[in-house]
Known about the structure:
Helices cover 29% and strands 26% of the residues. It is an alpha/beta fold and 351 residues long. The strands form 2 sheets. It has a 7-stranded mixed β-sheet with strand order 10-7-8-9-6-11-12. Strands 2-1-3-4-5-13 form a 6-stranded parallel β-sheet, sandwiched between helices.
Amino acid sequence: MAPLRIVQWTTGNVARATVRAVQARPDLELVGCFAWSADKVGRDVADLVGLDEPTGVLATDDVEALLALRPDCVVYTPLHPDVAELSRILRAGVDVATSAGFLTGHSLGPEARAALQAAAVEGGASLFGTGMNPGFAQLLAAVATGICEDVRHVRAVESVDVSLFAADSNMDELGWGRPMGEPGHADDVRRAVAVFEDGVHVLAATMGLDLDDVGCHVDFAVATRDLDLPGRPIAAGTVAGLDVRFVGIVDGAEVLELHQRWVMAGDLGPDWTVDHGYRIEVDASPQVTLTLGIMPDQPLETLTAADLHGIGMRITGLPVVHAIRHVVAARPGIVTYADLPVPAAPLRQRR
């Protein structure tokens, strides 16, 4: 088959993983790249995302020129979705696979979700969002129920030390370092991570479940000492741990749960347990637990903070790239894992 024509949209941290993955696949061809910053315009994409060899593709901020390339799919990886921008791409008939805080659009509100759905249908295009969590973790949770009957509750847990990501812009709205018990902090956290509500809807849709509501519970832990974190120092006695649970509700009962526990240190008050990974728990017959361990593909003694950060970006971006062929083949409109065959990476043939 002819390679699918791909445009990369923005060149931030996740793009360092997605561009590399697109370049590695013979069934995908990078034909264009959107640059958010004027200083990136005219530069080879390789220079912007840290590839060793030039791609021959120069970044541009000319949206019409990119759409005129007639790409099959845009890999859209800014931090947050721009509804007007996405609508323009979709209305032009271009499919979109994204990691930009979008899975179903529920967390954006009914007006924005309706606008994206209408633009996609008008253009005959598909809009698919994923990432590691929310996203791929909910696919794993749904798969874990496949050997069960009498399913009563499903939980997907992310429990990690995020101190290596302390300076990232996606941490800015979470209120690290705010006084414990400050009014409005829990509401601010829910707004900042509202896309996890989408994750609950994805899990429900994949399981064929109609939800009555989605709720959210937020708890905090404080630093027991001053934390001198690069780009985000946190004083003792202020918030250095977040515990956020988005729950799907049916008939007044919480039946689905996306549980996030993020900490900036190992010693907090209260003393929380952190598993440093992902876990799926299915309360059913039989009881099922999946533990997802993610390890670097290099000797541990050679690991740097940059290497660990890169792993985080790969597990965010690769589910997007591996879903592209299914997204291009999908029906028009907003689609989720409930609508696609299970995406998988191609096997690398060893020589």
